[in-house]
Amino acid sequence: MTPEIGHILLIMSTVLALFSALFHLVGISKHHLYLINWGSSFFNALFFTLLSALLSLIYCFVVDDFSVAYVANHSNSQLALGYKIAAVWGSHEGSMLFWVLAIALWGAIINWRQAGKLVGLDSADMRTDKAYFARLLAILALVILGFNLFLLFTSNPFARLLPNIPIEGRDLNPILQDIGLILHPPMLFLGYVGLTVCFAAALASLLGGALLHRHLEYLRPWVLLAWIFLTGGNAFGSWWAYNELGWGGWWFWDPVENASFIPWLVATALVHSLVLTRKTQGFALTTLFLCILAFSLSLLGSFLVRSGIVQSVHAFAADPTRGMSILCLLVLFVGAALLIFAIKAPALKREVSHNLLSKETLLLLGAIVLVVAAFSVLLGTFYPLLYELLGLGTLSVGAPYFNTMFVPLTFIAVILMGIAPLIAWKASTRKPLKVLALPSVAIVIIAALMTYQTQTDGALFLFLGCTSALFLLCSLGMSVCTKSQALTPPKPVKPSASKRAKLAMLVGHLGVAVTIIGATSVSFFEQEALLRMGPGQGKPLADYVLVYESTEPVETSSFRAIQANISIRDAKQDDLVLGYLNPQRQTFNSNGMEVSHAGIDHGFWRDLYVSMGLQLSDTEYLIRISYKPLATWIWLGALLMMLAGAIAAWPIKQPHRVAQTKALNVTNSPRETMSL
């Protein structure tokens, strides 16, 4: 009965999404506040029906209802409870339901909070903002409507296997039975939902004919939250692959990895563009366009993951019909948004005057570089697919292409990132450039010496990585040491807001530097050996000796395994045992699938990584051992970036509200100021 209830709730949510969109849109066109309030009520009901539908699906997993096809294909009675719940979003149907619920949740929060946003506004501004929020919620309801129809007709998570109900489920993919599944997909989905809110807010501003300063303030937390979740989603996905897949790498330029990385790059450009628009009262069209572009790329990534056109452990589905449905939604949403942008953009144009060598120029260039980097990754991801689709054969685009394109662009972005904080708004960069000249020369010399002494392949990439990290750290040090941005005259801003923004910038840019240091160190200073090992055999590596002590069987409720016990010894004192590594070859009971589970000794300065391969004799196995310097810094930097976003997004208490009615581009249209 529970699956039928969930299915009915999904149908109800589809009808409520339609009603919410219609009542909002008709209320705006008729200037009728009563209809708009009904639309808001329908949206709240929409959220609760979707929440109930997801809870129904979770219940089906918890009670092992294998009559539901989705449960039978992705769960098992022996699966741990935590993984049963995580399996809800572990594949296509459930993840789409979670995604739609997240959109409804964020929309409901906006709906509930809008009353507080309207406090302190005069009647005309209140009517303007009421119409703005009504348009935003209508667009979100239309997006939910599209996704709900997609779920009902192509990806119903409550579809039954009647009358042939299996006794046992196929189990969750063993590779997904990791804490990474609990954290990685939900964070990515919440990031995508944040981009959906940005998309809706951009269209709401375009349809209203103006982008008001206070509307930017409404949009800012959602942009930052989307960026925080996307950062966390990409970081946890990388961490999960590093720990679980047994390959020892942290990024593979996998097409599905790229599908989430591309929107993150554009979202990063959007964060900086939003700052630029708030500070200069200009570049509003750039900000609105980036909102649309980021959402478009997130949908494109979803198409890539769910269409089956690429094979990856990260992919959710392999059904071309579903892929074409998502592609149709992409064309519909993005095509309509770009058409609206083309029609409304000319009225939003505004001349902005600033120095060629200024903070404004650097921020704009930084956003452009990030967008170019995103499209370079997009090209490398989709070009082989298009090449094969056109019947031209197969083509492989791997790490050499991505590194060649992405590393130099990252270097340029980091240099801009280092200079921009040292400059005040509407000021020239000449003085900061002079101050940075001498440290820059020293940094280049140090990086060149490090590269020369290493004598490794990819010397240019090593040089760029060292130079960018050192330059950014030097710039951050100068930013901390200069009081009130001493390189340029201080500007009259609220002290709390100024300090909060500067702290967020420092922490975020420090996170970028830390990640670059970690990635560069692992890429160029890793030591690795692939050898045949058995009990009593050892291998020196860096400052350690890894000794294969014994092999033992391990058995759990989910799998049985052969485990190697490898001791970590000090190279100078061979009898001093520093710890143990326990790599395994796991065979899962439900499907007989065999996977390698790495043994990792995490440390602040280095990781020791051991993976266990095939059995070569009665006592010997193929063992890969690696010394990875500063590997943890890759994810430490991501955590610092997320912390920076949280600092910037955290609300600042203000003793009283002052309404800001000035439009950034054009005044409100007459219809906007009429009585609702």
Question: What's a quick, concise take on this entry?
Answer:
This protein has 676 residues and is an alpha+beta fold. It is built from 18 helices and ten strands. The radius of gyration is 27 Å and the shape is globular.
Description of the molecule:
The chain crosses the membrane at residues 6-28, 35-59, 96-112, 132-153, 189-210, 222-241, 261-277, 284-304, 324-343, 363-385, 405-423, 435-453, 459-482, 503-525, 630-652. Residues 89-307 form the Cytochrome c assembly protein domain. Belongs to the CcmF/CycK/Ccl1/NrfE/CcsA family. The protein has helices at 2-30, 33-62, 69-74, 81-86, 92-118, 123-154, 179-208, 213-244, 255-280, 284-306, 320-344, 359-389, 399-419, 430-454, 459-481, 495-525, 632-649, 670-673, and strands spanning 527-533, 538-541, 544-555, 559-570, 577-581, 584-588, 594-597, 599-601, 606-615, 621-629. The protein has 676 residues and is an alpha+beta fold. It has 4 domains: 1-143 and 156-172, no CATH class; 176-347, no CATH class; 353-492, no CATH class; 527-632. A hairpin with a 5-residue loop joins strand 9 (606-615) and strand 10. Mean pLDDT is 85; it is low at 484-493, 655-663 and 665-676.
For this entry, give a set of tags.
4-stranded antiparallel β-sheet; membrane; 4 domains
